[in-house]
Amino acid sequence: MLPQGAHTLTLGLGDALIVVDVQNDFLPGGSLAVPHGDEVIPALNRYLDAFARRGLPIFATRDWHPPNHCSFQAYGGPWPPHCVAGSEGAALAFGLELPASMTLITLKGTQPDKDAYSAFDGTDLDVRLRVQRVGRVFVGGLATDYCVLCTVEDGLKAGYAVILLQDAIRAVNVKPDDGARAEAEMIRRGAIPIRWEMLAE
Ligand code: VGL
Ligand code: ZN
Question: Which ligand is nearest to the CA of 65?
Answer without folding.
Answer: 2
